[in-house]
Amino acid sequence: MVERSFMDDFRRFFLRGLGALVPTLLTFALLVWAYKLVNENVGVYITKGLLHLCMVLRDEPAPWLLPREDLEKDALLYGQPINEWNDRGEQLTVEYKIIKNYKLLTESGTAADDPELLRSARKARNRAVWQIAFAKYRLHLLGFLIAIILVYFTGFFLASFIGRTSWRATEGVLTRIPLIRAVYPNIKKVTDFLLSERRVGFSGVVAVQYPRRGCWSLGLTTGGPMRQLQREVPDELVTVFIPSSPTPKTEYVIQVPRSDVIELNMTIDEGLRFTISGGVIKPEALRELPAEKDRPV
Question: What is the domain partition of the chain in residue ranges?
Answer without folding.
Answer: 20-159, 204-283
